[in-house]
Amino acid sequence: MDRLLKMFAVVADSNGTEGNDTEGNGTTSTARIHDHILGSGIQLNDFRLRTTMERLQALGESPISFEAFAELVGAELLMLNRIFNRELVIPDWQEFCSDIESVFERVAEDCSGQNADYIPILRDADPDKWGVAVCSVDGQRIEIGDVDVYHSIQSVSKPLTYAYALEREGPDYLQEYVGVEPSGRPFNSLELLPDLRPFNPCVNAGAIMTAGVVASSWPDQDARGITEEIMKLWSDLCGAVAPVQFSEETMLSEKATADNNYAIAYLLRGGKGLPRGVDLNKMLDLYLSCCSIEMTASMLAVAAATLANGGVCPITSQQVLSTDVVKKTLSVMQAAGMYDNAGVFTLEVGLPAKSGVAGAVLTVVPNLMGFATFSPRLDSYGNSVRGVAFCRELVELFTFHIYDSLSGGRTGCKRDPRASQHNRKQRDLSDLRWAVSHGDRYAIKVRDLLLDCMIAITLADGEIDEPEIVTMAETYTEIMGHQPQQGELHAMAQNLQNLIEAEGNSAPFEQLLHRLATEQARLDDNGRELILEAAFRVACADGIIEPEEDEQLRGIARALGINEGVLELEIARFQRHQAAQRSVSAS
Ligand code: GLU
Questions:
Q1: What CA–CA distance (Å, rounded) separates 132 from 375?
Q2: Which atom in ligand 1 lies closest to the alpha carbon of residue 261?
Q3: What pLDDT, in 10s, does the model give residues 345-391?
Q4: With a 6 A CB cut-off, is 261 part of the ligand 1 pocket?
Q5: Ligand 1 contacts CB of residue 107 (under 6 A)
């Protein structure tokens, strides 16, 4: 089929049969096109769709024929093709958003920690604020909660001032003054490397020295003027989705409470010396004013996505930083971004991130997305409690930890929303199904466990009847792509039934769990997923998950080594699906 016709078919309303118009007969509308774009995660004011949006606005609400559609989409065809054909980096954006929302809700319950209290504006900030914003490297965006609250970026500024200095001065000059070693010390420690350089640009000493390098390269510009330049960098990084602001109040308070930072500055000047003999006050003013820049979580998420995308802002396509500079910046964030908890954070979350004491955490999933959280309560290291909890939960559910790719296909069935993985998974699953029919030993093991699971669940009430056998046969056919062998299910059910009679009600299920636990180390994620899916479908065949079914599914997931949180997502998806079906049949 012609590719344009195929695109049109996705959005066309041909007499109420959406998505089926392959002849170009029906029409579409501005509203339908908007819905499809928004459903993909792309916002309507996206720079990459501005011509299409202008044309749509001119067309108003009148029906759009295939010919009009073809003319409409031409100027931004590649982008629209990816949107309508679900070829963006996270193809199933709606599903992904629902997962993010459930993590957001769970983390919201954590009210531990305390606001930073060294300056009034942070001490008095509303501690209950909680926002999460995500932006993919294709510019798909979701924003939940308090994502538009301006707050000072504080230490989140540090890696970006470093990136700015790298672009301006190059790595060699910077390296002479600032190290790249994790410090393992609190952020405001006065300790330095043996050669008297600060440990890295993410602790105060390193950030102050980095500010010194930048300040020394602008002899004719005062600290505020240079800050304006750095604010321009931030604005480009976040695709100018909102204005980058400056908080005079924060700056005044920071200056009034900067004794420790002055001590660091004097130490640096007395030790290694300051770059090009820059004025100490100018250096500190620049450092403190970078901390006083104000942004929102929604802006920081786009900035994080620009880093995830190698320096190219996903929503403006502008190369804001060179890829090499981004590589170095992310490496430093990975080693030292989360204060003196950076090692544990890398171990558990495995992503480059930077936090600030106002409650922001900016995190980068390279080549996939950036996200930012905002919640002012901090832990003892100065990291936002909910921000860290969100990162942790996310990597429990998704294969985002940099070393998840090492898993050899055994991640505990974590989700991978990436487009490439989506296709790979489908291919692996169809290979597995195909291999069963040719007698592959591994594939047959998966098939047998899957059958056992279905039967044990069906038999949980002590008996198995004909309609249940039919449900199992249908489920098997759907999952494996072919019908079970004749009489196979009956024979297996009979065996198990005999076992029940001999050993009591829960025997087959307990034996199943035991068998799954023994076999799980030999199963990869695909095999485990197929087995859980079979169990899930049989347990939920009647459209509800009864408490005992819920317990069985959890038992199976546990025995298979599938993360508890992943099962939660699966259950939540099922319930959403059921609710959607109920509302369709009600209307
Ligand atoms: N403005 C703070 C200071 O220099 C840094 C805050 C932070 O670590 O986020 O003390």
A1: 9
A2: 4
A3: 999 999 999 999 999 999 999 999 999 999 999 999 999 999 999 99
A4: yes
A5: no
CA–centroid distance, residue 291 to ligand 1 (Å) = 7
For ligand 1, pick from 121, 160, 188, 379 the residue to mutate: most ligand atoms within 8 Å of CB.
188
In terms of pTM, does the model score above 0.90? no
For the CA of 291, the closest atom of ligand 1 is 1
Does the Cβ of 357 fall within 6 Å of ligand 1?
yes
Radius of gyration of the chain from its Cα atoms, rounded to whole angstroms? 28
- Residue 295's closest CA among 284, 286, 304, 287? 304
**DSSP-assigned letters across all residues of 457-482:** HHGGGS---HHHHHHHHHHHHHHHSS
Q: Is the CB of 187 under 6 A from ligand 1?
A: yes
Residue 169 CA to residue 237 CA, distance in Å, equals 19
**To test ligand 1's pocket by mutation, which of 154, 202, 209 has the most ligand atoms within 8 angstroms of CB?**
154
Q: pLDDT tens digit string along 138-170?
A: 999 999 999 999 999 999 999 999 999 999 999
Whether 355 lines ligand 1, by a CB cut-off of 6 Å, is no
Identify whether the C-beta of residue 179 lies closer than 8 Å to the C-beta of residue 193.
yes
Find the 328 Cα to ligand 1 centroid distance in Å: 22
3-class secondary-structure state, position 364: strand
- Ligand 1: atom nearest CA of 355 is 9
Give CA–CA dist 250/266, Å, rounded.
Answer: 23
Q: Could you give the CA distance from residue 103 to residue 397 in angstroms, rounded to a whole number?
A: 9
Shortest-distance atom of ligand 1 to CA 382:
8
Summarize pLDDT for 460-518 with one digit per residue, the tens.
Answer: 766 777 888 888 888 888 878 778 777 777 777 777 677 667 766 667 788 889 999 99
311 contacts 323 by C-beta, under 8 angstroms: yes
Q: Is 187 exposed, middle or buried (0-12, 13-18, 19+ CB in 10 A)?
A: buried
The verdict on the CB of residue 204 being under 6 Å from ligand 1 is yes
- CA-to-CA distance for 173 and 275, rounded, in angstroms? 9
Task: Give dist(CA 563, CA 554) in Å, integer.
Answer: 10
CB proximity list for 354: less than 8 A, separation 6 or greater? 155, 156, 158, 159, 202, 333, 337, 338, 361, 362
Count other Cβ atoms within 10 Å, centred on residue 310.
Answer: 18
